[in-house]
Design goal:
165 residues, alpha/beta, GMP Synthetase, Chain A, domain 3, three-stranded mixed beta sheet, binds zinc ion
Length: 165
């Protein structure tokens, strides 16, 4: 099982200094810690030995779990795994694949809104992703623009600017 926290932390209720450091640096969220522990607990019940949890994006009403492996593993037979997670969180949960293809990953996150294009702009002090939508897609966004921008920033570990054209 591949989790963003170490096995020791997945098993216990405290964080080791390594994992705690990641939380403090903003590389690991409390929600990711919580979900890692939950998946670890469900490991034997649902055969999650080969499951992967890479990142979790919180869009208020819906939580998106991003995995590098087959999404089916975290959905489970007849959706049993995803519905147990959803019950635990009291929120809707979606499982999406995270891949090297940023546009595909982001498209999954912002669905049902459709992305027009993504541009990576380089600045003196780093880079910024410009995620472009058509104006008429505003109502299709899964969450308000501010929350979405923050979520994408966390996902890409880079500055993100959402623009409507
Ligand atoms: Zn740890």
């Amino acid at each position: 099982m591949n989790l963003p926290i170490c096995e020791l932390c997945a098993k216990s209720n405290t964080l080791c200094s390594g994992c705690d450091e990641k939380v403090k640096k903003g590389k690991l969220s409390k929600l990711e810690v919580k979900l890692s522990r939950l998946l670890y607990k469900l490991k034997n019940k649902y055969n999650l030995e080969h499951a992967d949890l890479t990142k979790v994006i919180d869009l208020d009403r819906v939580v998106i779990i991003l995995t590098k492996k087959d999404v089916g593993l975290l959905i489970g037979k007849e959706g049993k795994v995803v519905s147990e997670i959803s019950q635990e969180l009291g929120k809707k949960v979606r499982i999406a694949e995270i891949s090297g293809d940023i546009k595909k990953t982001l498209s999954d996150v912002v669905a049902p809104a459709k992305i027009l294009g993504i541009n990576k702009l380089y600045k003196k002090d780093g880079s910024i992703y410009k995620v472009r939508f058509s104006k008429r897609e505003i109502t299709q966004l899964p969450v308000d623009i501010n929350t979405l921008e923050k979520a994408l920033k966390y996902l890409l570990d880079s500055d993100v600017m959402i623009v409507f054209e």
